[in-house]
Amino acid sequence: MSLAVCIILSGDYHYALSKSPDRHPTNEEVYREIGYETIDKALQEFAAHFNQGIELPLRTPPISFTHTLGRFNDLDGEDKDSLEIKYINEKLPDNHYKITVRPVEHRFPFKEEEVIKVIKLQDGEEAVYLDRDGFNVLSFERGYWQYTLSINKRASDLMLPGVLVQIANSIEFATEES
Fold it and tell me: Are 102 and 145 in contact, with CB atoms under 8 Å apart?
């Protein structure tokens, strides 16, 4: 009993709880452990690394999310560096949406057999709608960046590619406002 009081008084109560073998880590702890942080912080790190400004879409899919997270992946060589923005719902695991951004010069390739269709965006550029690993994906280029919007197929069964296109087009609006 006195050990518990010492832990509480020393301010290490939260730490002691988090290291308990009977306690499961929270989503926040798990994501923090693998490098996720606030979207703003990840955006700043990514933009500073490439010395380029970046805009994110203003829109999100019309499904509910409980968490928004960001991670700048600074890996070996700039060709592997990317920004990941995740939107998840801890109560509905199928509600998983991700934005990945990388420089156009290091664009992520895709296979022709993955392409469902090519769609023209509002700015006249083409986007590729893909079926990849259980996700519906829209990949397009805007300025210096390649954007890849991915949404879990189980969450997007009722959504047409038009939803991802609306999200992609909302970057143009954000750019005009800057």
Answer: yes
CATH number of 23-177: 3.40.1000
Domain ranges of the chain: 23-177
Of 86, 112, 110, residue with least CA distance to 100: 86
Dihedral through CA 130, CA 132, CA 137, CA 143, nearest 10? -80
Distance of alpha carbon 43 from its chain centroid, rounded? 11
pLDDT per residue as tens digits for the range 132-159: 888 899 999 999 999 999 998 888 666 6
Check: CB of residue 68 under 8 Å from CB of residue 36. no
Distance CA 76, CA 147 (A): 21
DSSP 151-164: EEHHHHTT--HHHH
pLDDT tens column, 11-50:
333 444 445 567 888 878 888 899 999 999 999 999 999 9
